[in-house]
Amino acid sequence: MPLRLLASVALLFICCATQAQNLTSPATSAPPAISYVQDIQPILTEKCVACHACNDAPCQLNLGSGEGLSRGASKIPVYQGERSEAVAPTRLFYDARNTDAWRGKGFYSVLEAQGGQAALMARMLDLGRSAPLPANSKIPDEIALGLNRENVCPMPGEFNAYAAAHTQQGMPLAVAGLTDAEYQTLQRWLAAGAPVEQQSITPSVSETAQINAWEAQLNQPGARQALVGRWLFEHLFLAHIYFEGGETQHFFQWVRSRTPTGQPVDLIATRRPDDDPGSDFYYRLVPVQGVIVHKTHITYGMNPQKLDRVRHLFYGTDWTVNALPGYGPGHRANPFLTFEAIPAVARYQFMLDNAEYFVRTFIRGPVCRGQIATDVIRDQFWVLFQDPAHDHYITDAAYRGGTPCLCWPCRGRTTTSAVCSACGCPTGTGATSTRTCAATATRKCLRRAGVRYGRVTIMPC
């Protein structure tokens, strides 16, 4: 009996040890699930977003977020100089709400396996893997790069022809490529169906309080408040806003919404910030989503002191609004006229207070073509700002009489024709005629307004 009991106990220990080994053995355990946020986006951020970000990413494939990757690619170029008519905008997070809506706009998937073939992204990675570029060597001449590169955007059914014609143009293109671990991680994720978990940004308590205060300020009732709110929105819509005491990686941007503070944002997506919203709206602050890239990262800090400064500048003196301006071509073409009721010194001083932000908006923006901006500004330049106390537009009402003539001809032929007709200069066709007409019209209008200064300075809009 004791021997039988001892044998049973020994057998029990052996079984338990074997079971424990089976449960913990690396050879038999399933590989950990791949997280898009933790595993995939960091690879794309390091190896891909330098090209595949901003509005005009190659084939409109934006790899700065799961939403951009799920949206896919498009054959329609964002910018095309010879195009005579505008196309519908395709801004990520703005112009469509879900993948089905993007499919309706001509985007196709790079993540879905189709026709018995792997996903388009997987095949592009395989092509890049099969013909890596030699290390520390010049990129082959047949790989065209630069602003004039004609992107080829094959759909899944066109990939074989693309691969045959572009044997060295897999992805990532013209860079060092992926490490073995990165390549395997991406391919495992794609083979598993490319799941993308939702990643939402929740404002902190401090950020929420400041967001509510700023939204309340811009959405105040009253004609003066409505005009100032519009002016601030149209000057700050490009800003990546951060708050005093907020989270380090949290940024927000102004949008127009059909819903007020406290309700989910119902975005009004217009082509330009000064286009007609088409309905009642509220100015709202929403989180900036996706990977932050330097080209579009125009930061602007907000805090209670800056809010007090806005109130002092714009409401510290008595002024009235006879009628709120509309959103027609005339008002869109002439912000000097649109915001004429707001004291010029308030507008100018706000821009001086925030001069760094406004200068950055001339250099950066949603277009990934930094070569153009760098070529124009030559990297280093001087900026001079005039003291408001010596600015004729602020100190001389007669000088401001030329405001109606300061429209932008590029905002539509109707505006230019109206200016030319009102000032009596001949109209014509072609860009040169338009520029000449606008310049002549401006000079005549300024003379009629009684402006006798020898030259016209740039005035605060």
Structural overview:
With 461 residues, this protein is mostly helical. It folds into two domains: 36-192, no CATH class; 205-375, no CATH class. The protein is built from 18 helices and four strands. The strands form two sheets. A two-stranded parallel sheet has the order 1-4. A two-stranded antiparallel sheet has the order 2-3. Helix 2 (36-47) crosses helix 7 and helix 17 (413-423) packs across helix 18. It is elongated and about 70 Å long. The protein starts with a helix and ends in a 13-residue tail after the last helix. Mean pLDDT is 83; it is low at 5-27, 412-438 and 448-461.
Relevant terms:
two-stranded antiparallel ribbon; 461 residues; mainly alpha; 4 strands; two-stranded parallel ribbon; 40% helix
Short description:
With 461 residues, the protein is mainly α. It has two domains: 36-192, no CATH class; 205-375, no CATH class.
